[in-house]
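Supplementary Methods, section 5.1.

A reviewer requested that the exact input to the structure prediction be made available. We therefore reproduce it here, unchanged from the version used in the analyses.
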Amino acid sequence: MSKNWYLTIILLFLCSNLLPAQVPPAWGGGADQNDLSFGFSFTYISSNFKIVKKPGWRNRYFDPGVNPYIADSLSSISSTPLPGFAIGFITRYRITDHLEARVTPALVFADRSLTYTYPTASADVTKSIQTTTVDFPISLTLKSDRIDNFRAYLMGGLKYSVAIGKGNNDTADLNPLDQVPKNVAGFGSYEVGLGFDIYFEFFKLSPEIKLSNSIGNVLVSGDNPYSTPISKLTLHTISFSLIFE
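The structure derived from this sequence is encoded token-by-token as follows.
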């Protein structure tokens, strides 16, 4: 999305506060009339890694167990976005008419991948890191005035993600060429996004798009052809949610 799009969205958001609000209180199930309300969400996720390579990352991997070089020199390392989904709950607390706090724990199913290319195309390898996490986000939302049955908002916050189950991270006993890079069991992220409240007679629907980036390194260092060339991995996620409240 270009900078002009971001500026347009922010201007529309600010201008909406200058327009007269028309609020039918009964619509939206009365959620906005309560300081505390609850709901649930369904989320589509697209996630990939941002990769920082070590000096000499192209070098062939030397296996200390058998003492030969067991992999060719690398040409590139990349990460393709993979789809996933999440199911969550929302607890919303109204601080003022335009500022709210939200806690939105969710169960997330989202695989990640790393692709290693070599001078010989037949040697290329893609390693999939299967993950299931429980996310605990805390965020603040800044909302415009309500105009009829529509309202816009900006949000920002932090979340902590905890992996559940072993997935395919438990590969230490495998041959080095069969191993998979490991991710840390828990890590923090920051989130920013925007959304819209649409008021129906008995509930409120909020489509929301959100960008999330992990804080720090999510890679567990390992001695294998796929972890050794990498200095740091950060997780980049774009999500689209439908929130019912």
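The CA atoms of residues 106 and 120 lie 42 Å apart. These observations are discussed further in the main text.
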